[in-house]
């Protein structure tokens, strides 16, 4: 058994954003040596790791050279050079999640095919190699409006995804390989995080609910536990476990799902890493998702996933109309509310809709947490000087 | 109102040990810029701060020059040059806790005089400028055996404190100014952490209990909440608040107390900073003590102090007979137990009784947490290679 704690063992992390930053709290807690690779010198991870390397995550040489310096390699973003991970694996390096898992996820067309071939319930879809093929398919009636269009590569934070209701919108989409999915009218959008270690130990977190703004059609709150029937929650956890088994991933797998009006569970998409829908766990769960990811990739026993108290998470995104040096207006006011913890990611520049931080609200009474979350949402503003 | 978050505002921290390290998790979470001063290049704080300065905390010039680079200055250890803090205050620098608070605490004789002059219940004592004077006082019957002897300066982690039961022990004590206290036979040793900000907002944490090993007379577990009657807990919180008011401190004040067999509360000693007795709060409390210290010294609203679940803390100290590169034996085994979080401070070398880390056990059922803590204590060993 490797001695990870206060030793020369080294964990390499590809990506130096907020997910990496929150993972570093845990490597510090366990005193595990870390290297981080990120293209930006201003990355939130630039401090707290033992060594920061500036470089391109999509460059084969850069990733291979970086990975050779680590004992175990993980990533906090899917946009990394897979061939480099494969090369490192061939050299005997441990990469968790593996290049194989990532290959089944990184491209959204491949991801959908994977669900289909593994009997995982998901919305009907068509794959198209180009915009032209997509428009032709639409005209031929292979898929009908309204639909959800997704770029197969590089989508992140809602980029590369569009709800298409008219032919005009379809014609204005970017030129890229894509998938077109049947638009599912859903009762709830749910998520379950599954942890799995190389020894095959598996644990699922409670089902969380993404509550949408009634008009803006944007996730406003992530709520744990989801306010749904137990039978639906059990079904969602079972589906998530099935997805986890199919991928045989190591580390975390965040499984986003729709609960239809008929209480069917359909898998929307997955991410093989700590996830926005699990941020509540830092304050809410017995074992937070970042510590859990670390336990999983190091083949340590997984921690308890249940909640200590109810949790609601609010994303702090840059307000429209503001670009420049960030100011968190009224942050003092929200600190007066019970059970409120702000997490500021450390990005100096705000832009409209940029994820700048999040706020967690915990309370033994979930309804009370939800009420306070609304107050937080109404009060704090991410603007520029 | 100063903009602390993702700005150029700079917090200076005197001392780079484990308390500083855990405080840095919070400055990272709030994205507050930090400088740390510590004599050791291997200090646990060397990463995670924005700038690490190696230097002597007791050197006037070093501390003044360091402090001038910060907007607010705090410390994680009492052994710092007070004259330098006074100089910085005169130059208009904010120092929290203030030099005045520290002056009333750093010297244990002054600390005891302070309790007496502020009507704070404490064990009877005598002060002596030298070992010779102490032995004469003992002979004259000013104070009688058994007694607790304390060096007035520099005591830390049980150093500089002795229970004296025989004249022979007294004669073998080191040559130093000291105090001699009546030995209090107590039912429980309790502690309360009080937070106070410059605006005068005050919050107390629940009473914790230090459970002693029945034979070794060493604190084995810190338990929150203390398993005592409500009336005693209320009394202890009231006494702690009174101490806090007397000091008019800014930041945290950890108040250690004895509960006598007659349920009297006597103050033993105080520390003006995050404290070992508050480590459970990282996992157990709505607002952990380190975030609370930060909120207090920055004059932000204080967070809720109540517990989410019961918590028990076990110190990880170096085992007798082992000196050298540290190994945490059986750490994997304790990770299998529910609600267990290890905190490894990052010291590479273990020595007998050196504080190397701590383990927190949380559980909705405190008795269950206490049982698991015993399992942790029996299982993990801090040894050398």
TrEMBL record, chains A, B:
Domain of life the protein comes from: Bacteria
Top-level EC class: ligase
Catalytic activity: 5-amino-1-(5-phospho-beta-D-ribosyl)imidazole + hydrogencarbonate + ATP = 5-carboxyamino-1-(5-phospho-D-ribosyl)imidazole + ADP + phosphate + 2 H(+)
Molecular-function GO terms, alphabetical: 5-(carboxyamino)imidazole ribonucleotide synthase activity
UniProt domain ATP-grasp: residue ranges: 112-298
Role noted for this protein: Catalyzes the ATP-dependent conversion of 5-aminoimidazole ribonucleotide (AIR) and HCO(3)(-) to N5-carboxyaminoimidazole ribonucleotide (N5-CAIR).
Alphabetical UniProt keywords: ATP-binding, Ligase, Nucleotide-binding, Purine biosynthesis
E.C. no: 6.3.4.18
Pathway participation: Purine metabolism; IMP biosynthesis via de novo pathway; 5-amino-1-(5-phospho-D-ribosyl)imidazole-4-carboxylate from 5-amino-1-(5-phospho-D-ribosyl)imidazole (N5-CAIR route): step 1/2
Protein name according to UniProt: N5-carboxyaminoimidazole ribonucleotide synthase
Self-association state and partner proteins as the record states: Homodimer.
Lineage of the organism: Bacteria, Pseudomonadati, Bacteroidota, Flavobacteriia, Flavobacteriales
Listed InterPro entries: ATP-grasp (IPR011761), ATP-grasp_carboxylate-amine (IPR003135), ATP_grasp_subdomain_1 (IPR013815), PreATP-grasp_dom_sf (IPR016185), PurK (IPR005875), PurK_C (IPR040686), PurT/PurK_preATP-grasp (IPR054350), Rudment_hybrid_motif (IPR011054)
Keyword ATP-binding: yes
Pfam families per UniProt: ATP-grasp, PurK_C, RS_preATP-grasp-like
Family statement: Belongs to the PurK/PurT family.
RNA-binding in keyword set: no
Amino acids binding ATP: 108, 150, 181-184, 189, 268-269
